[in-house]
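User: Show me a protein chain along with its predicted structure.
Assistant: Here is one chain, sequence first, then structure tokens.
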Amino acid sequence: MPVDFHHDSLVQRRQLVPICIAGMHRSGTSMIARLLQACGLFLGPEKELGFDTKNGEPHFENVRFVALNDEILSRLGGSWNSPPEFPAAWEQMPEVETLTRQAKKLIKRLGIQNYWGWKDPRNCLTLPFWRRLIPDLRVVVCLRNPWEVAQSLRRRGDLTGIPSSLLWLVYYREALSAIPPQKRVITHYESYFQDPTAELQRVANDIGMDVPAGVISRACAHISGDLRHHNIQTTELNMPDEVLDLYQKLCREAGPVYQHQSV
């Protein structure tokens, strides 16, 4: 059953906007979560937002949601870097169904704000579970060139159970199969180094956040050129055809800022 967010009279008078931030690891999910938080998206208490253990930087992931996503994947026999096989209707399987009560508690704790959500790359894999509880969930899908993702994973020393290009493929295939186009917005990492205010405004509008232009501009001041370590064109990629085909499909949904700079 969907979660009842209307638990008090104040909430009943407002339209709550649940937002999930997803995308392959090292695809700009932390940067985009930070931008949306600066625009008013409630990601949970600061003490629950974790840090990257390798560089000490905040990654704006609510540790409670991450732990639950990890538990879901573990019960299905996998992990973030070695995804399990996902049988049909896996989100209703008994071993996963028992996590529903815990998930509802997490949702209720955050769902007192007008704009709220959580960021975790693992959401790409677990979206069917969350959409069963939150049918009106909006999803921000963060996209980055798969070669750049592979380079970033390698530089950090993150080990994957399958080749990184295939891991990228699994993440986005699962995400697209779980969320229809009208419930998602795809945003490309490169757009934030071309025209960040236009791209952030587009994303905010598409997920139903009413954010003044001044707030958008101040949020974009957080963007650092140091985050842009690689920049390679699609035509230069040496990746499996199925990875390239899906990447190009996603790029076509990535909005006018990316479309303009990629011409």
